[in-house]
Amino acid sequence: MGLMVAAISQEMSKPEADRTWQGKVFGLVPYDFRPPSWERIRGAYWNPDDPRLFTDRPFGVGWSLNLYRARIYIQQGFESLMGGKLEAPEPVRTTLTAVRGGKRSSRS
After folding, report:
1. In angstroms, rounded to a whole number, what is the distance separating the alpha carbons of residues 34 and 38?
2. How many separate domains does the chain show?
3. Distance between CA atoms of 108 and 91, rounded to whole angstroms?
4. Whole-model pTM over 0.90
5. Containing domain of residue 68, as a range?
């Protein structure tokens, strides 16, 4: 809450023509009070092109978690612990058996 007040105070101290409603509080914590767009939301929460785990929030003060990068780190950690590549499991084949009129029929 304190950082949000500091960010708003920082913007209000600027001349009205210079207010962008985005920046960094104390030159460190990012803030953005512009209405969020789908592009900014996706860029913050799922961005394969960004190497950062923590990205700027699309709205508010602080950071977001780049879930794509988190998935990569979790996968790499699992592979390093288990000593091999994590592969997708093969699809499971099932056989359905139905009883119709006292007779069994089978489909794969």
Report:
1. 12
2. 1
3. 13
4. no
5. 2-82
